[in-house]
Structures are given as C-alpha cells and as structure tokens.
Design the sequence.
C-alpha cells in the first residue's frame, strides 16, 4: 500500500495526521485517523436488552395473565439475584453476631429437648420414638410458619426496592422462599443430632422427602405472591395470619400423634379437614421411615393445586396495583 498525505486543510490536524490510504488491489481510498484517542469507535447498542417494563391500560384477563407469566419468567431468569438477596438478608439480620443463624439452631434444639421430655410424660410415649417425631415436626412447622408469615409481608418489607427499582415482583416472593430454606438447612442439624442420639436409621425411602420439599417450595412461592399482594392492600391481614397460625399449631398433629384421635370421630374429622396435616405429613413421614397413605398424598396434591390456582388468579389480578399499595 502507498500512503499519501492529504493536502486538504480540513484533514490536517496538528499531532493527529490524517492519511489517505490507497489499496493497491482495489484502488479505493480511505481516510484513517492516526490518533489513538480517536481510534475507538462507540460500541453498537442494538444488542442491549430492553428494560422489563410494560405500560398499558388494563385490557382484561388475557393481558393480566401474560404479564404475570412474563413476571415469573423474568424472576426465574434472575435466580442469581434471588440467591444474593436471600444471603444478604441473613447476613444483615445477624450482623455482628458470633454464631449468626446458628442461634436459631440452638434455640430450636433447646425447645425440642425441653418439650420432648415434658410431652413424652404427658402422652405416656416412649422418648426414643417421640423425640425424633417432635424434632422433625417442630423444625418443619417453624419453616412452614415462617414461610407464610414472612411471605405475607414480602412486598411491604421491600417497598423501597419496589418503588426505586424496576424488578419483577416474583423476585421478592422467591427471595422469601430461598431465605427461609437456607435457615431450614441450619435447623436440619437438630434433626441429624437427634437421629444420631436415638439411633434412627435412614433408607432410600427417605429420598421421597425431596419431591415433597419441592412441593412445599412451590406452595410457598404461591402463598408469597398471593398473600404478599393482599397484605399490601389490607395491612391488618398479617396480624390475622399470625393468630391463625398459632391456632393451627395446636389443632395440627405437630406435638401430638394423629392416631390418638382415631377413637373420636369428631376429632378425627378435624384432622382430616385440616389442610396443614397432609402437607406436613408427606414430608415428615419419609424422614421418619413411616408409610404415607395414598389418600394423604392426593390430599396434599389437591391442596397445592387449589392454592396455586387461587394464587395465579389473585396475582394476575393484583399485580399491577402492588407498587401503589406498598
């Protein structure tokens, strides 16, 4: 190639010479800037992802459903953000603490140990069988209770983030589920210690707890989306939910066996109509090695399907108003 310096005044700059470059093969002439500061061209913007935002008038259930599904899809794509926020919540909650979330593990262990000997004597039950049952029941009920109570405030507790950041609402609901699942992992230490002390052996049958836990997490996400929106609109609902969960603790077989009501038809009917019992039993029974009846499995699936359906309708209906309610 032969280089010719341009004679045009507008193409001559001091310290930054412009050169005409003639290609010997094509004969075309091009202008090249020899200054390093002007060598980098601006990056194209056509590949940038559009912001997650849709502004439109309400056009009925078709539009509401599509926006709700888009919210869930975008929340699933941001799963790394969900994990980061969940870990940040736990770290912030126990900031400055020496043991951190293991304080919950210690308090749960003390509670299990104290209640096991007390209720074991009251119910005339062998402590070797009752202590593992009580440990699993209390750990799982604490997990369930926290999922529901904190899920009802998953939007109101993050009102600043909702108002200041364009983010799918499903991220806040999933954040509640992941955060409490991490805490459950800490509390599982109590169950492991009790099983080792009492000599409870596990088998492959215990792996059935994995799909049961997955069903719990789906239900928890549905509850967070539904109750989070309702409690953002009606601020008295969280207190009502706490009261209902306290009553449900005593009428659900958590610290007592369901079989003690087999001889009482009215009491047994109360257990059979309790939606918490099949949900709790499908996860508790595999860990204890006890069989789960088909009726309980179908009841748990039915409760979950009803919950997910109601949550889907409610979230699609209320999603566009959450930002104004928080």
Sequence:
């Amino acid at each position: 190639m032969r280089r010719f310096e341009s004679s045009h005044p507008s193409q001559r700059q001091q310290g930054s010479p412009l050169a005409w470059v003639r290609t010997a093969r094509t004969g075309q002439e091009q202008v090249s800037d020899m200054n390093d500061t002007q060598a980098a061209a601006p990056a194209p913007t056509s590949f940038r992802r559009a912001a997650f935002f849709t502004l439109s008038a309400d056009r009925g259930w078709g539009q509401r459903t599509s926006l709700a599904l888009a919210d869930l899809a975008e929340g699933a794509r941001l799963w790394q953000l969900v994990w980061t926020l969940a870990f940040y919540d736990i770290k912030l909650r126990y900031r400055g603490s020496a043991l951190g979330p293991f304080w919950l593990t210690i308090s749960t262990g003390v509670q299990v140990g104290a209640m096991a000997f007390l209720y074991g004597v009251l119910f005339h039950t062998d402590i070797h069988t009752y202590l593992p049952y009580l440990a699993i029941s209390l750990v799982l009920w604490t997990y369930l209770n926290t999922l529901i109570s904190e899920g009802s405030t998953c939007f109101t507790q993050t009102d600043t983030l909702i108002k200041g950041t364009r983010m799918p609402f499903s991220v806040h609901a999933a954040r509640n589920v992941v955060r409490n699942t991490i805490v459950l992992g800490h509390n599982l230490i109590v169950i492991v210690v009790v099983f080792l002390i009492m000599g409870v052996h596990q088998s492959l049958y215990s792996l059935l707890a994995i799909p049961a836990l997955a069903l719990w997490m789906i239900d928890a996400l549905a509850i967070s989306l539904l109750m989070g929106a309702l409690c953002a609109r009606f601020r008295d609902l969280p207190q009502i939910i706490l009261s209902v969960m306290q009553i449900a603790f005593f009428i659900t077989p958590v610290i007592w066996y369901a079989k003690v009501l087999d001889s009482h038809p009215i009491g047994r009917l109360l257990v059979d109509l309790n939606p918490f019992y099949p949900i709790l039993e499908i996860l508790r029974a595999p860990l204890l090695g006890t069989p789960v009846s088909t009726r309980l499995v179908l009841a748990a699936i039915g409760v979950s399907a009803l919950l997910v359906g109601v949550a889907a309708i409610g979230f699609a209906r209320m999603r566009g108003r959450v930002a104004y309610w928080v």
User: Anything to note?
Assistant: The first helix runs from residue 61 to 77. The CA atoms of residues 115 and 134 lie 8 Å apart. Confidence is low (pLDDT under 50) at residues 1-48. Strands lie at 2-5, 18-22, 29-33.
